[in-house]
Amino acid sequence: MIGRWILVRTARCFGLDSGATTWSSPYSRPTPPSSPSENLANLRVYHLHRLIVQGLWGTEPVTRSAWLEHAWGMLPLPGGPVSLQRFQVQMEDGRDFFCLQIQRRDSNTQGPIRCLLQELGGQPKNLADARVTAVSRWRSQGKQIYPIAWRLESPALNLDLKAVIPNQVINGPLTLWSGWVRARGREGEQGEGFVQVFG
Prior knowledge:
By secondary structure, the protein is mainly beta. The chain has no helices and 14 strands.
């Protein structure tokens, strides 16, 4: 067991009163594609995946699987016509994948991408030939267009990802689309995760 966390309710945030433990080792996320290494010198990120979360949601007992990301330092975010898309998905069969893709917002052309696939109990491996394509988009009230469905294709994993609800925009100092997605494989595999679209 690597660690234990307690998540509690506060006056402004309704959450879990729970303990979370993990049976998987932490690993580093892939370097963003086409990012100058000197700009990432002060960035550190690791993931703990397949966390076992047990507790209460209000008065209802729940048991779920979660994913913790710890990051510190500075990451230069894209701007102008360029967006950064981040995908994290846990499959019911025990596989997890993480992808980072830089994409022009005004183009369907495949942008540079880096992906990791984590088999249950195994070591993370690069998906060298992965391809992620947006297949559906949604226009926000602010007239920004965000992808809300994607197709992941690779020799090791082929998935369709779809946002559970279209409007998952977070407005703040940095406006982004950050939302819950469901995944379905070509052979009926299922999973859940989240996608973030910066820029």
